[in-house]
Amino acid sequence: MENSTLSFYFNLTMFTNIGHHRYPAFVFCLLLYVFIVSANLVIVLVISRERTLHEPMYMFIAFLSFNSLYGSTGFFPRFLMDLLSDTHLISRSACFTQIYVIYTYASYEMTILGIMAYDRYVAVCHPLHYHRKMSRKTVFSLVAMAWVFPGFVLTACISLSAGLPLCGNEIQKVFCANWNVVKLSCVSTTVNNIVGMLLTIATVFLPLFYVLYTYLRIVAVCWKKSAEFKGKVLQSCLPHMVSFVIYSITGFCDIALGRYNLEEINPFVAVILSLEFVILPPVLNPLVYGLKLPEIRRHSLRMLSRYMQ
Question: Which GO terms describe its cellular component (predicted)?
Fold first, then answer.
């Protein structure tokens, strides 16, 4: 039983395949991190400062950008240090902290996209009741639920994983992931698997199906409307649809990769696929919303020009 005692350190094995590419990768990822922080911070500041943007749709976009800052800050600093390091050991406490931050970021992203879909559904299908149904109190209640529920469930799930006796310490990733830790267990993980499945259903599939349902209702309402009405709906809904599709694809890639034998995949491809969900949405969301929505674009350019003078 001594060999199955809880490991103090985990070894992130996927870094060994980077080799001499570590320095260009470090520079590229550092610039990427700077861009993510800068772009999402601009979105948050613009929406928080401009009273005309204190509407539910824009507030949800600000929360989405804030979540991008949260997830990126929980991932990039450690990742950048590991790129330059010769050893890639991470302490048990740091590993589970990283799991919590990355997983809550991922869950928050999907639940926020879910309430954004509800906002667009009310705006298009019940326009006369929009201000009553999407009051400031309702907005903050939805956001609180979108943040508290995943955080509570993930705390329970990760606590179960933290209590498992492990018979190894090698994680085939460039960051800590709950499923990779569970696979190292010396005992049955049936309870962990059931809790993990319920968590995935609650924070991924339920928001996913709800978003699809709301857009089917929106399409049904738009079907018999004028071209002008359809254009206005498309302008307000398209950025959300793009964000949702990007995140769904990148999230699916990471979930599928965790269940696949990585020895059968090109190491470089495996690393890229595992990083998509934590990199692409924070990069693309501010571009999609900042460039597509005229109000955010106008105020962002005004604020940037003011600071550059």
Answer: plasma membrane
Structure tokens at 220: 């049904």
Residue 260 has what DSSP assignment? S
With a threshold of 0.85, does the pTM exceed it?
Answer: yes
Residue 264 to residues 21, 71, 184, 298, Cα–Cα distance (Å): 22, 29, 19, 48
Residue with tokens 């006369």: 128
* 247-298 pLDDT, tens digit each: 888 887 777 776 666 667 777 777 888 888 889 899 988 888 887 788 888 8
Q: Where are the domains of the chain?
A: 9-308
- CB atoms < 10 A from the CB of 199, how many? 19
CATH superfamily of 9-308: Rhodopsin 7-helix transmembrane proteins (1.20.1070.10)
Residue 80: exposed, middle, or buried by beta-carbon count in 10 A (0-12, 13-18, 19+)?
middle
